[in-house]
Amino acid sequence: MTYDRLVCANCAAPVSEGRCPVCRANRERLQQEGFLGGLNGLNPMALIALLAVLIAAVALLAHQTA
To answer: What are the boundaries of each domain within the chain?
Structure first.
C-alpha cells in the first residue's frame, strides 16, 4: 500500500494531495521514512513469491537436518 491511498482524518482528503497541514506533514514523514521500509516497490505477487521461496528454503533446511 502506498500513501497515495491513505485518507486524512483531519480533512478527509487523500494524503497525497496535501490539502491541510496534517496531510502535508504526514506526506513528508512517509516520504522520508520510505513507507513500509524497502518493500513499498513490490507488488503483492512478488511478496507472495518471496514468501514461497523463504518457506521452501526453510523446509529444505529442516529436511536436511532430520
So the answer is: 1-35, 39-66
